[in-house]
Amino acid sequence: MMTARPESWHAALHRLQRDGRPHALVTQVTSAGSTPREPGARMVITEDAVYDTLGGGTFEWQTIAAARQRLAASEPGMTLEAFSLGGRSGQCCGGFVNVLIEVFPGSRTTLALFGAGHVGQELVRLAAPLPWRVLWHDSRDDAFPAWAADQPRLACRASPDPEAAVAALPAGVHALVLTHDHAEDRALVDALLARGDTASLGLIGSKSKWASFRSRLSDAGHGDEALATVRCPVGQSGGDKTPYAIALAALAELLPLVETPERGDQRGLDPADLRRVLT
C-alpha cells in the first residue's frame, strides 16, 4: 500500500482546494471497540497520493480504494462506509468504525486562454474567483506578469508553437484566442477546430477579421458547421474599448456556456444512513 506523504491532511486539503485538483477527504466519524484511531481522524486521498493516516492496515487500504473508486467517477458528494475490523477488514483489533468520504472532483471547467496582453491579463484577474482551471498560453517567454505565479488554479505556459500548445490541452476546454499576432490567432483557431473537442471557441477581433479568417479556414478544409462554432468577435462591450471592459464582456459571454452540475432535491448523506450511524 502507498505510504502517506509527509504533508499533513489539512495542508494538503488547502493546497488541493486552492488548485482545483480532484481529491477526497476521509473522516472517521464513529468508533466502537478497539480501533487504530479515534473519531475525528482524517486523511486526504488523490488518485496517486495519500496524506495522513487512519491507522494503517487493511481497513485503511479498503478506505483508500473506496475513495479512489468515487474519485474515478468524478461525482461530488458524501458517502458513509462501515468497517467491521474483525470481519470486512480482517484486523485483529476487532472494532467497528464508520467513515465519511467527501469527494471533491476538482475544477469542472478548464479555460484555455491564448494571449497574455492587456485583455488577457484582465480576463485572468476576473476569472480568479471562479472555480475554473485556467491554462494561460503565450508564445513570448516574458509575457506573463509576476502576480500570475501566486494565483490559484492558474498555469502559465510559454509555447512558440501553436499546434503543440493546442495538442497539449485536455478535451472539453473552453478556448479564447486573443494573442498579439493575427497569424498566430489563425493558426490557433485552425488547430483548435482540427481537434474538434473544445466545449466552446471564441476569437477576439472584428467582423472583417473573422470574414478573412473564415475564408482561409474554409480553404484549409474546415466545414461550415465547424466554422459556425467560432464566436467572433468576443468581448463586444459597446463603445467602451478598454481592456477591462472587453474582458468583462468576454467573460459574461462565456458564463452561460459553462455547464453547471444539476442539483437534485436530495443532497448530502442519505437520511437513513445518517440515522443508522447516530442511533
TrEMBL record:
List, for all copies, the residue spans of the domain called XdhC Rossmann: 111-254
From which domain of life does this come? Bacteria
Q: Which InterPro entries match?
A: MoCofactor_Util/Proc (IPR052698), Xanthine_DH_XdhC (IPR014308), XdhC_CoxI (IPR003777), XdhC_Rossmann_dom (IPR027051)
Instruction: Show the Pfam families listed in the entry.
Output: XdhC_C, XdhC_CoxI
Domain called XdhC- CoxI: residue spans: 17-77
NCBIfam families per record: xanthine_xdhC
Protein name, as recorded: Xanthine dehydrogenase accessory protein XdhC
Q: Which organism is it from?
A: Halomonas heilongjiangensis
